[in-house]
Amino acid sequence: MLHDPAQLDLMFQALADPARRTMVERLSRGSASVSELAEPLDMSLSAVMQHLHLLEASGLVRSEKVGRVRTCRIEPKGLGIAESWISDRRSTWERRLDRLGEFLAEQSKTNPKK
């Protein structure tokens, strides 16, 4: 499956920051307001909002403002794209390592140590 490289770059950039990973972890347990997301972090609400904007731009998080409260939720499709990309890489390396294992097993049968 082909993925938009720019979108993947943005997702991994978003996940590279510990504060943003903390927010994603919290949102994986359910929706939360910006205040709730900011609570465990040692930063201003303004800084939290900047982090949230990047998470939203990456497609990992969605938010909705009702009245004065902005509620955020995880975007499963965004996580699925990142998971799919990682899974594709893992499958490729597993196949390569399986072939290497088969090759080495065949080599040990044809050239046993003396």
What is the strand and helix layout of this fold?
Blueprint: H1 5-15, H2 18-27, E1 32-33, H3 34-38, H4 45-58, E2 61-66, E3 69-74, H5 76-110
Antiparallel strand pairs: 1-3, 2-3
Overview in brief:
The protein is of the alpha+beta class and about 110 residues long. It has helices spanning about 5-15, 20-25, 35-40, 45-60, 75-110; strands spanning about 30-35, 60-65, 70-75.
Radius of gyration over alpha carbons?
Answer: 21 Å
Which spans of ≥5 residues are poorly predicted at pLDDT below 50? none
> How would the global form be characterised?
elongated
Q: Give the domain tally.
A: 1
Number of DSSP helices?
A: 5
Which class of secondary structure composition applies to the elements?
alpha+beta
What is the CATH-assigned architecture? Orthogonal Bundle
CATH class: Mainly Alpha
- Strand order within the widest beta sheet: 1-3-2
> Distance N terminus to C terminus?
47 Å
The count of DSSP E runs of length 2 or more, i.e. the number of strands, is: 3
Characterise this structure.
There is one protein chain. It is elongated and about 75 Å long. It has one domain: Winged helix-like DNA-binding domain superfamily/Winged helix DNA-binding domain (Arc Repressor Mutant, subunit A). The protein has 114 residues and is of the alpha+beta class. The chain has a 3-stranded antiparallel beta sheet with strand order 1-3-2. The model has no long low-confidence stretch (mean pLDDT 91). It has 5 helices and 3 strands. Helix 2 crosses helix 4.
